[in-house]
């Protein structure tokens, strides 16, 4: 019955329905059909749905409806206090949510602002001082503005945590708790997540009051409109196979995932050398560079966008046909979030994974999480040779770059960008005013950046060549 419901039947205002119609939508997705009436009723919500099924509109539309009664055209900042706070883990996701709020609220006199790290704080500060009813923010940059005393939550009625599981993965729990302590006790709280882990349930218990639990798909499942293919390949043949697949299928848009920012930059360069237009996007890119790369990819000016997992949450690309895992993620849940960039809004998508021998354990973990076997397809000329046992040294040489000490008994975790993984450490007010870009947002303490810089000066191992046997053995 949910599929027969229309937006008109959900009780949304005429202005919001007009904005929805302008975007060409008439029928809500499953998560929207279940969440919107509950949120309109003022209940707390704990909701989970497959990535790409409309979670953002699921809370944006009813939030706008609930705030429509206080919308006004006054020029006085006092008439535009923060009524709703939406927290997201990454810059890309914050920008996406901001665009959604503006798109569906274009016929309402509600002011919205997005604040996130990697850009100058001063324009954001001015927006906050001018008054804003709906604030979209990443945790680190939000706390910078709180420290500057330019944000007041005394009138906040609604709190939304989007991609809550990712925020916990990135170490933002202390920041979230600090923000929660500043909010009124009487409020509506909404928690949206791609997956329901035990940690998420614990957070929900502390955040939500008698919530309505909405789970429109089985835990840790993926969109059924996405087909999955695995190609087993030798490490030194991965690049050739990737180029072969892109050119054979004449792909005009392929989102390619690797583990590290070094790998992203190198792979994009190698693809460009083989006449495939490619750009890289990762944590070392500033916001302007990332935005330009995304726009070029969306406009079809770039055939391949090579990304780290920092980009997995928040990328919204219409009708993206292919996601390619050049390297499997160390965490199985990240596989779900990676491939969730394709097969969105009912369109078909394809997820291709290039798997070498040392990644088979990662593949097994992914299949265990999904409770399904992914289809294995051999590509003539690129069939992996597993007849010769590989030594521990060979496995280490072909694995993703990492720093280690001692003996590893399980697959190593990929090195992650500290800018997205370190808990927030408040910067001083003076530092924020002197250099607002460096002091705010989601960036770590200077000692973390110094440590990362020292790590990056170490020689990088060869990423795309077969390992050479140790001559001493």
Automatic annotation (TrEMBL):
Keywords: ATP-binding, Cytoplasm, Helicase, Hydrolase, Nucleotide-binding
Record GO biological process: response to temperature stimulus; ribosome assembly
Catalytic reactions of this protein: ATP + H2O = ADP + phosphate + H(+)
Intervals of motif Q motif: 5-33
Top-level taxon: Bacteria
Residues in Helicase ATP-binding domain copies: 36-214
Region annotation Disordered: where it falls in the sequence: 389-473
Compositional bias per record (Basic residues), positions renumbered to this chain: 401-412
Chain ranges of the DEAD-box RNA helicase Q domain: 5-33
This protein's record includes keyword Transit peptide: no
PROSITE patterns membership: DEAD_ATP_HELICASE, HELICASE_ATP_BIND_1, HELICASE_CTER, Q_MOTIF
Residue intervals of the Helicase C-terminal domain: 238-387
A GO molecular function held by the record: RNA helicase activity
Record carries keyword ATP-binding: yes
Enzyme Commission code(s) on record: 3.6.4.13
Entry GO terms, CC: cytosol
Family according to the record: Belongs to the DEAD box helicase family.
Name of the molecule in the record: DEAD-box ATP-dependent RNA helicase RhpA
């Amino acid at each position: 019955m949910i599929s027969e419901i229309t937006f008109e039947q959900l009780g949304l205002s005429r202005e919001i329905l007009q904005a929805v119609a302008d975007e060409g939508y008439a029928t809500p997705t499953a998560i929207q059909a279940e969440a919107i009436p509950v949120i309109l009723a003022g209940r707390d919500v704990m909701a989970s749905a497959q990535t790409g099924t409309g979670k953002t509109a699921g809370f944006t539309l009813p939030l706008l409806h609930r705030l429509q009664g206080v919308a006004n055209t006054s020029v006085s900042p006092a008439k535009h206090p923060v009524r709703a706070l939406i927290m997201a883990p990454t810059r890309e996701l914050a920008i996406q949510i901001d665009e959604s709020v503006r798109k569906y609220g274009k016929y309402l006199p509600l002011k919205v602002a997005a604040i996130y790290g990697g850009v100058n704080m001063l324009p954001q500060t001015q927006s906050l001082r001018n008054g804003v009813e709906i604030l979209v923010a990443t945790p680190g940059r939000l706390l910078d503005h709180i420290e500057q005393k330019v944000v007041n939550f005394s009138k906040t009625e609604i709190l939304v945590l989007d991609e809550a599981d990712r925020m916990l993965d990135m170490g933002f729990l202390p920041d979230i708790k600090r923000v929660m302590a500043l909010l009124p006790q009487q409020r509506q709280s909404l928690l949206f997540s791609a997956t329901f882990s035990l940690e998420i349930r614990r957070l929900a218990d502390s955040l939500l009051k008698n919530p309505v639990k909405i789970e429109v798909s089985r835990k840790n499942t993926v969109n059924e409109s996405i087909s999955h293919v695995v190609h087993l390949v030798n490490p030194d043949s991965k690049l050739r196979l990737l180029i072969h697949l892109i050119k054979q299928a004449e792909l005009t848009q392929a989102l390619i995932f690797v583990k590290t920012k070094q790998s992203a930059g190198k792979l994009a360069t190698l693809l460009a050398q083989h006449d495939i237009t490619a750009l890289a996007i990762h944590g070392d890119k500033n916001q302007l560079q990332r935005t330009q790369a995304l726009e070029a990819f969306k406009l079809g000016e770039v055939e391949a966008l090579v990304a780290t997992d920092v980009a997995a949450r928040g990328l919204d690309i219409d009708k993206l046909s292919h996601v390619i895992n050049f390297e499997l993620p160390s965490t199985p849940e990240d596989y779900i979030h990676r491939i969730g960039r394709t097969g969105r809004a009912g369109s078909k998508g394809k997820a291709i994974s290039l798997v070498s021998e040392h990644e088979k354990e990662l593949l097994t973990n992914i299949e265990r999480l999904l409770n399904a076997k992914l289809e294995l397809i051999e590509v003539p000329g690129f069939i992996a040779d597993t007849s010769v046992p590989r030594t521990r040294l060979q496995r280490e040489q072909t694995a993703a770059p990492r720093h280690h000490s001692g003996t590893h008994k399980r697959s190593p975790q990929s090195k992650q960008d500290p800018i997205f993984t370190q808990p927030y450490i408040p910067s001083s007010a003076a530092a924020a005013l002197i250099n607002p870009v460096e002091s705010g947002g989601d960036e770590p303490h200077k000692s973390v950046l110094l440590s990362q810089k020292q790590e990056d000066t170490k020689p990088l191992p060869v990423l795309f060549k077969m390992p050479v046997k140790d001559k001493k053995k």
